[in-house]
Amino acid sequence: AEGELVGGFNTEYSSLKFAMFMLAEYVNMVTVSAVASTLFLGGWRAPWPISTFWEGANHGWWPMLWIIVKIQLLLFFFIWLRGTLPRLRYDQFMKLGWKILIPVSLVWLVMVASVRALRNEGYDFAKVVLYVGAPIAALLLLALVWDLLRKKPAEAEPAPPAAFDPMAGGYPVPPLPGQELPPVPRRRSRAPQLQDALNGADHTEGS
Question: Do 163 and 182 form a contact (C-beta atoms < 8 A)?
């Protein structure tokens, strides 16, 4: 939520300078979308179903259309995700990156290198899937079985909280969460005494 915080450019710049700061973020999004389209989505080439049955899909002006469409789709995904995803804490992003994305990317790198090496050696598609997919499936199965069979330690029952004394340190202190103040003894109601006094005043005025 950095864009929601009050920063230097929010208070010191206005007009076109402020617009340039805000547009720089979207320029970065366009750059990242272009790089991702080139590296992961085939770049200027036509998508997979179209390129199989249309030979002219990668000639003329069509490559420019394909790269623009891919960039626009990634930009739509960026803005859509930004507008709908709840705010995440920084430690959650770090946990996602270090514990999930980096291990997955390393496994993916080893898998792609193994596939390329087996294809260069002349293995057919079925054997490549068997040699690469079988170890990964076995590891996932072992991880699932380990998670199911692992015994979680029994949680010890919490000890009952001690009675709270608001004047224990010599000064009145408020109770912590989970603590309760002791009941305050109520004084005897003075309503009957007041009623008797009023009744006596009425008798005096009447006499």
Answer: yes
